[in-house]
Amino acid sequence: MRPLTDDDGFSLIESLVSLALIGAVMSAATSLFASSVRVTNHQSNQEVGVWLAESGVEITRGDSYYWTTTAAGVTNPLKTSPASAAAPTEPATVVNGLTYSRRYATTAPAVGLRQIRITVSWPCQTGTCGTSATTLVSVAADPTYAP
């Protein structure tokens, strides 16, 4: 048998242990990366849903394709219809390959007011995810400016 010197290198056992440690660390890092991608996608979908709900609030407050022209003038059916009437529907919105649906519901919490709730839903890993926004609008005629 020859004597051991300082430049003999690593033994097979040392090499296998180091490979096992590197594999364990890389496995944990890969799991962390996959988890962060999943959370980021969920948050992105949630952000789009909130944006669609808030844009629905703006639609009910301002000019939009929901406003209809009749012989009596231009009206917003969300403001002028009875509180129990069916709210207008719209086609589904597709963002980044994901289909979002937006629904409107109206109630009359007080005379002269309409509470409009916009609910947005979309498919997600746990089934159906959703968010909503609510606004309060007056059914009274808009004031006119008379110089």
Task: Describe the protein.
- The protein is α+β, with helices and mostly antiparallel strands.
- It is built from two helices and six strands.
- The longest helix has 50 residues.
- The protein is rod-shaped.
- The chain starts with 11 loop residues before the first helix and ends in a 9-residue tail after the last strand.
Tell me the layout of helices and strands.
Blueprint: H1 12-61, E1 68-70, E2 73-75, H2 77-80, E3 93-95, E4 98-107, E5 113-124, E6 127-138
Antiparallel strand pairs: 1-2, 3-4, 4-5, 5-6
> First CA to last CA: what distance?
112 Å
Main sheet: strand order: 3-4-5-6
Question: What is the number of helices?
Answer: 2
Q: Please tell me what the overall shape is.
A: rod-shaped
Largest sheet: 4 strands, antiparallel
Task: Tell me how many strands there are.
Answer: 6
Computed structural class? alpha+beta
Q: How many domains?
A: 1
How much β-strand is present in the residues?
A: 25-35%
Query: Element order, helices and strands?
Result: HEEHEEEE
Average pLDDT score:
79
Given as residue ranges, the uncertain stretches (5+ residues, pLDDT < 50) are: none
Radius of gyration: 30 Å
> What is the helix content?
25-40%
What would a concise description of this structure say?
The chain is α+β, with helices and mostly antiparallel strands and 147 residues long. It has helices spanning 12-61, 77-80, and strands spanning 68-70, 73-75, 93-95, 98-107, 113-124, 127-138. The strands form 2 sheets. Strands 3-4-5-6 form a 4-stranded antiparallel beta sheet, with helices on one face. Strands 1-2 form a two-stranded antiparallel sheet.
